[in-house]
Amino acid sequence: MTIRLSPLPTKEVLFVLFFSLLGISSLGYAIEFKTFQPNSPANQNDYFSTDSISTKRVRTVERHHWDKARQHKERGEIQYAFGDIDFILRYVPNHPHALMQMSEISMAAGKPDTVRPYLDYAIQYRPKNSSTHIIYGIHLHRTKNYSEAVQHYKRALELDPKASETHYNLGLSYFELKEYTLAQKHAKIAYDRGYPLPGLKDKLRQLGHWPPQENSP
């Protein structure tokens, strides 16, 4: 599964996002966002569709709103960035990059629940997109809703059992819940499948929950 807007495949984008989100801070002033209202089904497009008409519509929406949203965000114009990302998600409800950006925007504005209706609708729109559940899990982890994050990661694994980064992120949430045995289980699966980031292993090692014979870097 690839994301058209990035040279990185979806799975890499998602774990890079997790760590980039750690640096986002609140703006420190109030912003009011309008309530999410999805377009009619006839005016919605599946991001992952290979149909030429849908693909053309998705790219047209991106061309007119994606770069504008990023520019607004870089200038700190969060309200305007929200407007462009909201537009994209009304036309392409399961657009993974836009969902990730909406998560960032809602966190930056100090209104983390803003993204929830978009994520909920994306799941309703295409229930079998594992990427939406991963993004939801990442957002919930950031807001310390670890138990809820676990549920979305587990659903993502039901849809894509081989995804190493989902096992890794699930392990991180279990770690925060002090479920160290489960955290270790999913960490081992992630690393056995080639996941490159050592953070979870290091966390478990510091608390004595990583096998001694595997303590070498």
List strands and helices in order, with pairings:
Layout: H1 10-21, H2 52-74, H3 78-91, H4 96-108, H5 116-125, H6 130-142, H7 146-159, H8 164-176, H9 180-192, H10 199-206
Helix pairs in contact: 1-6, 2-3, 3-4, 4-6, 5-6, 6-7, 6-8, 7-8, 8-9
Number of helices: 10
Sheet with the most strands, sense and barrel status: none
**Chain-averaged pLDDT:** 86
Element order: H for helix, E for strand: HHHHHHHHHH
How would you name the oligomeric state of the polypeptide chains in this document?
single chain
Give the class-level CATH name of the largest domain. Answer: Mainly Alpha
- What is the name of the CATH architecture of the largest domain? Alpha Horseshoe
Question: Can you characterise this structure?
Answer:
The chain is mostly helical and 217 residues long. Helices cover 61% and strands 0% of the residues. The chain folds into 2 domains: 40-126, Serine Threonine Protein Phosphatase 5, Tetratricopeptide repeat; 132-210, Serine Threonine Protein Phosphatase 5, Tetratricopeptide repeat (Alpha Horseshoe). The protein has helices at residues 10-21, 52-74, 78-91, 96-108, 116-125, 130-142, 146-159, 164-176, 180-192, 199-206. Residues 1-29 have low confidence and may be disordered.
